[in-house]
From TrEMBL:
The keyword Transmembrane helix applies. Keywords: Membrane, Transmembrane, Transmembrane helix. It comes from Emiliania huxleyi. The chain crosses the membrane at residues 56-75, 95-112. Residues 1-24 are annotated as: Disordered. This is Palmitoyltransferase. PROSITE patterns: DHHC.
Length: 210
């Protein structure tokens, strides 16, 4: 068994998972480490086809709107009487600025991190009991060679299969950890969501427009 798997097995073996780590019945709980995070099954693959389509559509729509607005202003502000020239020039500057801001927002939304939550020892642990039980069982089965057919191609795949069918776990404490996503295997804020295109959890819907 790899060091990462051992680190994961050492996690929370008897812990009350939603409780503070240091207050679990006075027992010392092994703090979560990056080793434990690495032992978790791999994150799911984003739907790249849909992502590319959504980006292309978004970029095209915004591009066409910008081109239309800039074109209209250009057409109506050229060949104006001399008295109106300063106003025309001001209008053009405003529309260029607006176009620049729109492009900046577009590229930030489409290619920025979009509030995507990243795995870390703090984000992934403590595991809710249902998740911990399934992962530990999969690890033990793989270490003893007692793996049911069809045999998963890797330990990560075996663990991924182990958490299939589980439902997200909500921390009953409203000021607690929020919701545990059983696909990303991390805690996200209660108002966060899992995007089925990106296959990642995001802080909130507005930050995930890709
Ligand atoms: Zn998304
Ligand atoms: Zn998720």
């Amino acid at each position: 068994m790899s060091a990462e798997s051992k680190a994961l097995l050492a996690q929370e073996s008897d812990a009350e998972p939603l409780a503070e780590r240091s207050e679990v019945d006075g027992e010392e709980v092994v703090p979560a480490t990056w080793e434990s995070v690495k032992a978790l099954p791999a994150l799911q693959t984003p739907d790249h086809g849909t992502l590319i389509c959504e980006r292309l559509v978004g970029t095209s729509v915004v591009g066409i709107i910008i081109a239309f607005c800039v074109g209209c202003v250009m057409l109506t502000t050229t060949d104006v009487p001399e008295a109106s020239a300063p106003k025309a020039s001001m209008c053009r500057r405003i529309i260029y600025l607006e176009a620049a801001i729109a492009l900046y927002c577009l590229f930030t939304l489409q290619y920025g991190s979009r509030g995507v939550l990243q795995r870390s020892p703090q984000a992934c642990f403590p595991l809710p009991p249902a998740v911990a039980d399934r992962l530990r069982a999969a690890l033990r089965r793989s270490s003893t060679g007692d793996v049911e057919e069809p045999r998963p191609p890797s330990l990560s795949a075996a663990m991924e299969m182990a958490v299939e069918g589980l439902h997200n776990v909500t921390d009953p404490d409203p000021d607690g950890r929020g919701v545990y996503c059983v696909r990303c295997l991390l805690w996200r804020p209660a108002d966060g969501h899992h995007c089925s295109t990106c296959q990642r959890c995001a802080q909130d819907l507005l930050q995930d427009l890709a």
